[in-house]
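Case 271 in the screening queue. Each case pairs one protein sequence with one candidate compound; here the compound is S-adenosylmethionine. For every case the pipeline is the same: read the inputs, emit a complex structure as tokens, and attach any notable structural observations.

Predict complex for case 271.
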Amino acid sequence: MTRQNAVVPALTITSPDDPRIGDYRALTDVELRTRWEPPNGLFIAEGELVIERALRAGYRMRSALVDEKRVAQLTGLPADAPLYAAPPAVLESITGFHVHRGILASFHRRETPQMPELLAKARCIAVLEGLNTHTNLGALFRSAAALGIDAVVLSPNCADPLYRRAVRVSMGEVFAIPYAKSDDWPGTLTAIREAGFTLLALTPGDGAIPIGSLTPRQRERPALLLGAEGPGLTRAAMEAADARVVIPMYNGVDSLNVATAGAIAFYELTR
Ligand SMILES: C[S@@+](CC[C@H](N)C(=O)[O-])C[C@H]1O[C@@H](n2cnc3c(N)ncnc32)[C@H](O)[C@@H]1O
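Case 271 output:
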């Protein structure tokens, strides 16, 4: 990042009640943040690397908030967004946690692609049903980006990929991969099949075919459907699928973590 500190000086924050840093308040209150961020069109990124990835992906910064000791080392923040600096104790009382990465930034959200457009451009996609854990969601996006998945479709009850923890666990790869949230479930699964995908329900349950046995035809344009920790895929999702697919397991283990299952399936279907 090339830095503009010389052009835009850091503005010092001395009180956690300063209205200029409203974007960063109570970051540990997941419920409040989840209700507040999307309707207000913003998200929070943490740490220089992730912030740089958001900027590279074209997200527009609203402001940055930094540990005052780090100001001199920063480079490449945009000149048109205010840079606020605060002592660690003030940072902690604003955010609710010790900001050990030293920098947070608030970004404007942008429109996600329309579902037909997203599907038209993709060959291999991940479809996530009821993924409500930010860490699993972030890990899935990181694997999806790394292993060549073209797009991610989310059911309406999935967590927000731009929630701070999901962004952090993904190492900013949520910015690299296009995604869209369905507003018609399980209708979107029919739309995915009608767009030419073979819908493969990943399940550890009985009667599924081993992933290594998929035919070349089934591998041509796969949509890999993954369910939540605990309940797994709904009956409606299972019934909508073209095939049920299992990653064989050993030692009596009954299932894999969903992010692990996703990574294995992504590798198998994109290699
Ligand atoms: C922890 S599992 C859910 C377990 C749930 N009891 C079930 O039967 O689906 C979460 C998700 O990971 C995927 N998964 C986990 N282990 C798998 C395996 N061995 N083969 C295929 N998919 C698996 C499935 O998509 C599943 O919905």
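Case 271 observations:
- Residues 1-7 have pLDDT under 50 and may be disordered.
- The pocket of S-adenosylmethionine is lined by residues 202-205, 226-227, 229, 232-233, 246-247, 249, 255-256, 258, 261 (CB under 6 Å).
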